[in-house]
Task: structure prediction
Amino acid sequence: NMIIENGTPQVYDWESAEIEGFPCFDMFHFTLQYGFLVKNWCVNKARKEIKLLISSSIFKKYTEEIGMNRQRCYSLLKLYLIYTIIWDNDPHGEKLQNKRTTLLNTL
Result:
């Protein structure tokens, strides 16, 4: 659940991962949940952090290994957001859902 990038540990939780599931789902989920819930990011900050994630060397390596182009990452991000807006009954409720919806609408 940890990756070291440039000497900095990056922690990911793969509990929702599926062999036939959507690539990048857990990376997006961990990044956005942590940012919105722990760091209280606004949507602009979340958008910047997601761009940093997608441009990171570890993300690039991952997408190259699975044969996925970078533009598809944004399509998967949108799919992730739609999924969580529709299906996630998060106890943090409306505020989190509003941030997700706003982020989706600004991509």
